[in-house]
From TrEMBL:
It comes from Fusarium napiforme. Keywords: Hydrolase, Metal-binding, Zinc. Belongs to the metallo-beta-lactamase superfamily. One of its GO terms (molecular function) is hydrolase activity. SUPFAM superfamilies: Metallo-hydrolase/oxidoreductase, NAD(P)-binding Rossmann-fold domains. This is Metallo-hydrolase oxidoreductase. The keyword Transcription does not apply.
Length: 663
């Protein structure tokens, strides 16, 4: 998984200001005041990849933050206390296995954050470090939020978990108290429920709490001053930070968790994002107690300034991007550190070599709907991505991502060939113009597809992946007619997408006024179904469906998509595969599963007594995230060379999700 640099972008200091702030912070480390435990043996700390949120919003972090989605990382840490040979984890990050989360998290958090687990599981990361899961004796949770905490009994069977004081009182009784899992309760009953529901071995920290540095309460975890668990209220009750003394350098690092969510907030160059609650009070999106949170942030600032403590926050990547703090960079694996320090922007802290070892994949249309999801998926797998479009930089910045700005329509064939040279794979995610002079036109799309094919062959691209539309797929029950040839298909298609709130929301986000008319059509159909119909609703339905059958604005482009398949079908002069998404292709959850169908539109079996050509309620769909998985798998396996195929997945969740993701 690669690094996001938007934290650095969000901090709007000039370069001079940036260097001044860094200089002040690092100068403090040379004149630091000694902290309790300075004579202790210290610990070895490894940063672990805990996954990320694909579509986080800076508006939730910063008062003047952008609403454009960005990738927010989720770090956790392995702590090794050599004198006792104990291995302890600080937080767990996110998981790809959504079943470990409560129904509330699955309903209210995952669809909006588009959570992905780490590139390699914690078990794999630990094994890479020579540590077995059975050796983990404790998991210290900074707090009880789902992106830091999950049940451990299966993952770390011999470990005991610890939470901060006050956690149980705040989080009990959990989501299982009624006997059935509740969709309305955030807190996990497997931790905080009644005795019959608890599955996890845990306790709250107990012992002697003493002042440490600028904080009033801290607990000496190992008893020798190597690891201090710090009471740091603000984010939520029971919130903790941890201070570790590194055995290799005697330097102190504060694992700040969610005391603060970005270095811009810590430096004071951005203000905390707030809103007015229903009770009229000012509230923060990410901090429950604003005064306490400000105090915790101030304490951390003073730890830096007065004691030379180095700060690693749970969701911040600034120090990896800047690579100026050698103490924090030492948290990366020793045998990778030299490689990491040569990269201008830090990528994946544990597997940086994958940036160059992976396939070189070009993606035409990297900032669009399908293209953005595909780029994110490919970067997660360690591929080097070349984003090709007029404004490829909009996807974001990443060491595994090289933006190549070119207008393929206007550029010469020679210039396009140069951009495509040395690619192992080229994916064409180019979509039609939805506005302007050539909006949804037949000929411009065909001419551009032809140009790309010619240039890809001239550039000797190893494998061409064409992402077209469903118009080229055979209509169910017909050997010769495609969906584009079958007018009634478009009526079934419009009805199918109108039945999904998520699909209509997706169309509104992408197509503006076209999506608005679809929303009106959906509302009218719902009114008829619910018995609330009126002549105006029925007239709207009739008019909309008449337009679909007689003059659908998208039909010209869809026909062009069908015709573009002719450049590929039976062509043995280059290696290709042609992907046609199913009818109900939209943004949605990343389920991780899919089913391949060759040549035909994916549909459910016709009910007994129904015509095969009747597609009412039968069309399959797939989310952009799941189709990205299918395409990425094909890029890696290349088992469908020379094939025309589609894929579908579980689309039962109808929660609207963002149409675009960013690095």
């Amino acid at each position: 998984m690669s690094m996001e640099i938007r934290y650095a972008q969000a901090d709007k200091r000039s370069r001079t200001q940036q260097e001044t702030v860094n200089t002040v912070a690092w100068m403090a480390s040379t004149s630091k005041t000694k902290l309790p435990g300075h004579d202790g043996p210290g610990v070895k700390v490894h940063l672990l990849d805990g996954g990320s949120f694909s579509t986080a919003s800076m508006k939730l972090l910063h008062k003047n933050g952008s609403s454009e989605p960005f990738r927010m990382y989720d770090w956790c840490f392995l702590i090794h206390h050599r004198p006792s040979n104990r291995y302890v984890l600080w937080d767990l990050g996110c998981s790809d296995d959504y079943s470990v989360y409560t129904p509330w998290v699955n309903k209210c958090m995952l669809p909006y954050a588009n959570v992905v687990g780490p590139l390699k599981s914690l078990k794999e990361q630990l094994e890479y470090l020579g540590v077995r899961v059975e050796q983990i004796d404790s998991v210290l949770f900074s707090h009880a939020h789902w992106d830091h905490c999950r049940p451990i009994s299966q993952e770390f069977p011999y470990a005991q978990a610890f939470f901060g004081p006050g956690t149980k009182g705040f989080c009990s009784p959990g989501h299982l108290e009624s006997g059935e899992p509740s969709y309305e309760v955030e807190w996990d009953g497997r931790w905080f429920g009644s005795q019959q529901h608890v599955t996890e071995n845990w306790t709250e920290f107990e012992g002697t709490w003493v002042p440490w540095g600028t904080f009033e309460r801290a607990l000496d975890y190992f008893g020798d001053g190597s690891l201090w668990v710090i009471d740091a209220p603000g984010h939520m009750p029971g919130n903790l930070a941890a201070a570790v003394k590194l055995q290799s350098t005697d330097e102190w690092v504060l694992l700040g968790s969610d005391c603060c969510h970005s270095m811009a907030l810590l430096r004071g160059t951005e203000e905390m994002a707030t809103y007015i609650g229903e009770d009229g009070e000012v509230k923060a999106y990410l901090q429950q107690d604003i005064p306490a949170a400000h105090k915790a942030i101030d304490n951390i600032r003073k730890l830096e300034a007065d004691y030379g403590v180095h700060v690693a926050l749970a969701h911040d990547a600034t120090w990896m991007i800047e690579q100026t703090n050698s103490v924090l960079m030492s948290l990366l694996d020793d045998n990778k550190k030299g490689v990491c320090l040569t990269l201008p922007i830090k990528a994946h802290p544990k597997y940086p070599e994958q940036i160059t070892m992976g396939l070189r994949v070009g993606v035409i249309g990297p900032t669009g709907f399908g293209g953005s999801y595909l780029c994110v998926e490919l970067i997660r797998r360690g591929y080097a991505i070349r984003g090709i479009s007029r404004t490829p930089e909009k996807l974001g910045q990443n060491p595994a991502y090289t933006p190549c700005s070119i207008d393929i329509e206007k550029a010469s064939f020679e210039d396009v060939v140069e951009v495509l040279k040395n690619l192992d794979v080229l994916v064409n995610e180019y979509g039609p113009h939805t506005a302007g002079e050539h909006a949804l036109e037949y000929k411009p799309f065909l001419e551009l597809t032809r140009k790309i094919v010619i240039c890809a062959k001239a550039a000797k691209v190893g494998y061409f992946v064409m992402v077209g539309g469903c118009g080229s797929l055979h209509y169910p029950g017909s050997q010769f007619s495609t969906c584009a040839d079958t007018k009634i298909f478009w009526l079934y298609y419009r009805r199918g997408i109108a039945d999904s709130d998520a699909h209509v929301s997706y169309m509104e986000e992408r197509l503006g006024s076209m999506g608005t008319s679809l929303r009106d059509y959906r509302n009218a159909r719902l009114a008829v179904r619910q018995g609330n119909s009126d002549p105006a609703a029925e007239k709207l339905i009739d008019k909309y469906e008449h337009t679909v059958m007689s003059n659908d604005s998208a039909l010209e482009f869809v026909t062009a998509g069908r015709t573009s398949f002719m450049f590929f079908d039976g062509n043995t002069s280059f290696r290709w595969t042609y992907v046609s998404p199913p009818a109900l292709y939209r943004s949605g959850l990343r389920t991780g599963g899919y089913t391949i169908v060759e040549d035909e539109l994916p549909v459910k079996p016709a009910p007994e007594g129904h015509e095969e050509s009747d597609l009412t309620g039968r069309m399959h769909g797939i989310s952009a995230a799941d189709l990205a998985i299918a395409i990425a798998d094909e890029i890696g396996n290349q088992k469908l060379v020379g094939k025309h195929w589609s894929a579908y997945s579980d689309m039962s969740d109808d929660t609207p999700t963002p149409s675009y993701v960013r690095l």
